[in-house]
């Protein structure tokens, strides 16, 4: 199932009177719930929230929780290093707080697991870790950019 099919399912679910929806395949499980404070997806890896991203405006009163299983970080090999891609849809933050310095800058040496940036989805802050030791060769998003699933965020060489 690709991300467009998941988005279509989310749209149909949001417009329906259903409170919960679950679907299991050999690849994993996908669940949606309109009930608050509930774990929605339980893949072998981690549980991450996905939201239809808009400007970082307040979420509507009738907001619904949505989650899909994703890999923590997907890597794509390139000539300038490996691209770290977004595991979910959300708003990218390059620093932990407005008055703090950025997590990383071009030319910085990073260690595997070091936080590169944060992606906010449904008011949940998801840290994006470095998949390996290396040097940051490019940062491909700006602070508070809306990022898509699979979008390249940072390159590490």
Runs in which pLDDT lies below 50 for 5 or more consecutive residues are: 37-79
The chain-level mean pLDDT equals 74
Going by CATH, what is the homologous superfamily of the largest domain? RNA polymerase II/Efflux pump adaptor protein, barrel-sandwich hybrid domain
Spatial extent as radius of gyration: 16 Å
Distance between the termini: 31 Å
The dominant shape is elongated
Instruction: Figure out the total of helices.
Output: 1
Spell the H/E element sequence. Answer: HEEEEEEEEEEEEE
Q: In what range is the share of β-strand residues? A: 35-45%
CATH topology of the largest domain: OB fold (Dihydrolipoamide Acetyltransferase, E2P)
CATH hierarchy, class of the largest domain? Mainly Beta
Please tell me the CATH architecture of the largest domain by its name. Answer: Beta Barrel
Number of strands: 13
The major beta sheet can be summarized as: 5 strands, antiparallel
Integer count of domains: 2
Main-sheet strand order equals: 5-6-13-11-8
DSSP helix fraction: under 10%
Structural class: mainly beta
Keywords: Biotin, Fatty acid biosynthesis, Fatty acid metabolism, Ligase, Lipid biosynthesis, Lipid metabolism
InterPro entries: AcCoA_biotinCC (IPR001249), Biotin_BS (IPR001882), Biotin_Carboxyl_Carrier/Decarb (IPR050709), Biotin_lipoyl (IPR000089), Single_hybrid_motif (IPR011053)
Pathway: Lipid metabolism; fatty acid biosynthesis
Domain Lipoyl-binding: 81-157
């Amino acid at each position: 199932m690709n991300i467009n099919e998941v988005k279509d399912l989310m749209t149909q679910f949001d417009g329906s009177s259903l409170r919960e929806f679950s679907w299991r395949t050999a690849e994993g499980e996908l669940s949606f719930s309109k009930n608050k404070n509930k774990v929605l997806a339980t893949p072998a890896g981690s549980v991450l929230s996905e939201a239809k991203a808009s400007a970082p405006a307040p979420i509507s009163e009738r907001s619904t929780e949505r989650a899909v299983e994703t890999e923590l970080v997907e890597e794509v090999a390139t000539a300038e290093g490996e691209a770290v891609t977004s595991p979910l849809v959300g708003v990218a933050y390059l620093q932990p707080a407005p008055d703090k310095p950025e997590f990383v800058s071009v030319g910085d040496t990073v260690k595997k697991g070091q936080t590169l940036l944060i992606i906010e989805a449904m008011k949940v802050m998801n840290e994006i870790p470095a998949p390996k030791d290396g040097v940051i060769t490019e940062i491909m998003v700006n602070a508070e950019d809306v990022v898509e699933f699979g979008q390249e965020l940072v390159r590490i060489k």
